[in-house]
Every structure is written in C-alpha cells, then in structure tokens.
User: Fold this.
Amino acid sequence: MADGGNPRQVAAFAGQTDALRAELAEIAALPDNAPRGLSGQHYVSPDYFQHEWQTVLHQGWHCLARADEIPNTGDYLALTLLDEPIVLVRDGQTIRALSNVCQHRGMPLVQGKGRARRFVCSYHAWAYRTDGRLMYATRMKNDGFDRNSCRLASFSCVERFGFIYVSLAEDPPDLDAELGDLATHLAPYEPEAYRTVHTATEVWQTNWKCLVENFMEGYHLSVVHPKTLHGYTPTELCKKGPSGPGYTSYISNYPDHIPSRGRGAPGLTPAQRHRSFLFAAFPCQVASIAPSLLVSLCLLPQTAERVDVRWTMSVYGDDLDEETIAQRIALWTEVNREDREKLELMQAALRSRHALSGPLAGADFEGTVLDFVRWLARQDRAAPYLSDTPVAGATTPGPIAMKS
Assistant:
C-alpha cells in the first residue's frame, strides 16, 4: 500500500481507491429491478484490497473453525487471520482466541493442531497458561519487566451454531445483530449437533469476493456443475432465502424424484429435508446445510488475487455411514475444484479494462450477490475517504426480501 514516500503515489492510491468506493456506493444504490455487480477493478486492485483489509475485513467477524475441532481442555488450533497469528484454545468451558506470539521476542508458540496444558515457547522457554497469562520466564532478571502483568493478547471470540467466530477489531460489531434472524432459520437443523469429519485447506488464485459471490448464487449450478450438483440442486429450483444486516441466503430445492439426503434433526419439516440451505455470514464465511450434512468455507484473504480456503464437512449424528461420508467428501472436493478453475480463469479476465459492471439476474438467482454488494457499501460508508472524491449514493438500500 502506498502510505508514504512519493506524494504522487499516495495521491494515485487515494484517487483510485476512492473512485472505486464511489462506484460501489452508486451500484449499491441502484433499484432492486435494475441491479448490477461490481466492475473488475474491485477484484484486482492491490490498493483497493488494502483498503478492504484495513476496514471491512479487519472490522468483521470471521468464522475460523468448528467448536468440536477443539473439544477438550487444552485442545488448540493455530492459524493466521489477516497476518495475525492466532491460537484457538479451549480453556475449560471457554474457547479463547489468543495471540500466537510470545511476548519476549515474538516467536510463534504453537503450530498446527494439538493439546497442551501450557504453551511453552520453543525459543527461550517462556510458558503461558491457556488463558494467556504468563506462568514463568526462565532466567529473566529485568527490573523493568513485570511478569504479573505479562500475558498474551486476546481477540474477541464467540461460538455460534457450533462455529467459532473471531474479530480482530478493538470494538467489533454486535455479531447477533449482524446475523439477525439467521439463528431462527438454522435452529431446526440443530447445527451445534453436527460433528466434523473432514477439514482441508486450499489456495485459490482469486479475489475473496469472487468466492463469496460464487458460492452464494445458484445461477451457475447447472452450468458449472452438470455432473456433481445439477441432478440434486438444479438452477431452476433455486429460491432466494431470508437475509439480514450481515448475512444472506438462498434455498436449493431438490427435484421431487430425488430421495431425501438423510433425516437429520427431528424438528425439520418435510420441505427442509428436501433442500439445502446456503448462507453467507459476511464478510468471509459461506456454508451449506442439509439434514445430514454441513459444509462451511472459511475464507482467509491473502492478496487481491489470492484467498486461502479452510473448509470443513460435518455430519448429523449417525445419519451417514463411513462409505457415504467418503463419497460426500469426494463430491465436495470435486465441486470446489470446478468452482476454483472457473474463478481463476475469471480472475485473469477481470484485469481487462472491459470488465465493467454487469447486470445481475433476478432475486432467486443473484439476489444474494446484490445483498453482498449492498452490505459492502454500508460497511464502506463508515470509513473516511482519502481524497476529495464525493460520496455517491447517500443512502444504501438494505438486503432484498425473499419471495413469499
């Protein structure tokens, strides 16, 4: 990011970024019956990505894992969110998100996944409790050092629907307010009861927003996934689902002749047993829940044109046997491959000067994309402009409603 040095570079950064922000506001303010998507530069500009990094991404809540991945006291999972090393750890009944950085010289304390009664630095053997407090600092004699006040930094961390959400913000938004009535729509599935059977991490050479938009629209299903998804979730049966301040959803209905994919929770209706419910918790979680299967993608943006994807698959009770679980893992691995190939092709083309703002399909097919664009615009309005670019679109509409 051009944040110092050559004044012309700083001005160019501010001008381009603010121009894209103004375009975002204009697009988000379009009427429901004439929606458009973002232009290519929103997905490829390094400066615009740095603006998102410092604002919408840093301020938001990020789903990082399933709670049952660290079920016992001392279980931990280390990962990196927006260049911040984090260790998720179960401390009694509490799940904490601690800084994975020793307060002595900055060494990461743990890597990967495991269990520990304490975190001992591999460099100088400083040790920390699982609540972040320093236990001891070997041979440390320094009158300016107060070991009683030394502890690992922590981040806001909550559990919802069996997922672990973390925010790096000093004062993050109210997650429950952001998710609105999503809890009501997920409750019949009993998402907390699903058990994780598979995790994988992939590198996608695409912008993080492209992946959110792709996962959250059924317009492409029958075209991109003719063998993997079309038979169960054809495009023509997709319907816009409920949405709220910080989430959107759509319903992927199964054809009448297709058998149900498991019974799932006892409170599900026959209709809920015959469809998948797909939702995005902005900015970076997309998920699909069905009676017996829950797949969630945690998006970890790296650059304007790369996002790391940590995805999990969970199953409800004993609905699926081991052979079926293996088949579902293989299916979703293939679905992800199909999507990744398309998005990486598109990413290169988005650099073109002809990659302009294009029209979106109707609410049932791309209404979720419109919800996302409008959410981005609402978040962006809270950040100051970097130049004298006027703010377009003084009022950004809210999410669009599903059809009754």
